[in-house]
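Researcher: I'm preparing a figure for a lab meeting and need a structural model of a single chain. I don't have an experimental structure, so a prediction will have to do for now. The sequence is pasted below. Please return the structure as tokens so I can convert it later.
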Amino acid sequence: ALDPITARLAELKKSVIGDSTAIVADSDEVTILADKSVPVSVIKTIMSTCTGEGYEKVSLAVIQQNSQAAAG
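Model: Understood. Here is the structure written out token by token.
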């Protein structure tokens, strides 16, 4: 059985539509988007899997929550 992360990366590569998407799919770059609820161990596993699948540029983007609750 395939690792779920590896399976998802392969699925994304197969779902290419159009030239601009093909350029992105052929890229060796991936950005992981997470917030503080995601354990660091999970992020490390995802990053490791991505590099193992040939993605040489792995970035992490963190979602910052607004420090004040929205009024309303």
